[in-house]
Amino acid sequence: MAASKIRAAESGGLTCWVLSEGMAGTENQCLALAAGLGLTPEIKRAAAKPLWRWLGAAMAVLPPQNLAQGRDSLAPPWPDLLIASGRKCAGLALAIRRASGGRTFTVFVQNPRLGLSAFDLIVAPRHDGLAGANVFATRGALSRVDGAALESAAAEFAPTFADLPRPLVACLIGGASRRHRLTPDDGQALGAALAKLSATSGCGLLVTASRRTPAASFRALEVALDGTPAYIWRGEGANPYLGFLALAEAILVTADSVSMVSDACASGKPVHILGLAGRRSARFQRFFDALEAEGAVRPFTGSLESWSYQPLSDCALAAGEIRRRLEQRNKV
User: Residue 112's Cα: distance from chain center in Å?
Assistant: First the structure.
């Protein structure tokens, strides 16, 4: 890669694709990493055709446009940088790298499950347990939450929450997953616990659901919060999620979502973990154990606590690693 392109990477001039299956969780991590590099990527949503998936990494020998299914074309000119995620995209990412003659610096976010060595860089959370010369381990999921984003959100949403009592407590509610559940009874119990916290501490609540929160369960939570000073976002108007993180003095987040916990821990605020029915996988347990050992999170015990820790800054660190490797490749 020419030195001029290395300088372009620092100023946001590299061409960049984000490749995903279209799943919001993985795509958002790729977009966060591109934003950390100062890039505005072209988003490509595609997956390898079922016919070719059995080839695994060997599918890279085929033209990407023949491998892919989806509305977006995978054709030259190839980008300078490719950031991909999603198991059905891993082989496509390798095919693009090969089709570019190795010129496309190829980054895969999370475990590609196709082997590690063929990618220029793999950015994966440490609880995945990956190791290798081209693996960059993060503390959590890649997040757009940083000081600048929080400062901007605080200015935007401060008037919205001005009438709530202090301290403000953000409540990030997840929901059903392969290992967790949130029934209406669970939602009612969770709402009752939050109402009790407000009554005993005098706090105002900032409450939001996730895409996986069952509607009936969130309604039960809302009923339990009736009469409690709370701002509840129901999906209408500007999303106040960053405003919640920016203006809250403490954050409560359910234990089903690595992404929401990572966002919360990027804020530097005390993060209390709300238990959900179900059973954590070994990977999830490693994630929470590490953050608890570092002092970032604590289980919610019914009252607010205050503490400090080193906020997560995985996007900035991963972006720095990409720049370093691009510069290193230019010197070879």
Answer: 17
* Burial grade of 97 (CB within 10 A; 0-12, 13-18, 19 or more): buried
What is the C-alpha to C-alpha distance for residues 225 and 154, in angstroms, rounded to an integer?
Answer: 25
Of 4-13, 63-72, 152-161, 162-171, the one with minimum mean pLDDT is 4-13
pLDDT at position 331, please? 64
* Radius of gyration of the chain from its Cα atoms, rounded to whole angstroms: 21
Amino acid at 138: T
Taking alpha carbons only, the member of 95, 135, 137, 87 closest to residue 114 is 87
User: Do the strands 81-84 and 68-69 form a parallel or antiparallel pair, or are they unpaired?
Assistant: unpaired
Same fold, 3-142+315-331 and 147-299: yes
pLDDT tens profile 88-98: 999 999 999 99
What span, in angstroms and rounded, lies between the C-alpha atoms of 223 and 96?
Answer: 51
With tokens 């591109």, the residue in question is 34
Closest CA relative to residue 82, chosen from 109, 58, 62, 56: 109
How far apart (Å, rounded) are the C-alpha atoms in residues 121 and 83?
Answer: 10
What are the CA-CA distances from residue 158 to residues 136, 149, 154, 242 (Å)? 37, 14, 6, 11
In three-state secondary structure terms, 40 is coil
Q: How far apart are CA 96 and CA 92, in angstroms?
A: 6
- The answer to whether residues 316 and 36 touch, using CB atoms and an 8 Å cutoff, is yes
Q: Tell me the domain boundaries of the chain.
A: 3-142+315-331, 147-299
Is the model's pLDDT at 5 over the cut of 80? no
CATH superfamily membership of 147-299: Glycogen Phosphorylase B; (3.40.50.2000)
Torsion over CA: 22, 23, 24, 28 (sign)? negative
Pairing of the two strands 68-69 and 47-48: antiparallel
Class of CATH domain 3-142+315-331: alpha beta
Q: What letter does residue 158 receive in the DSSP assignment? A: T
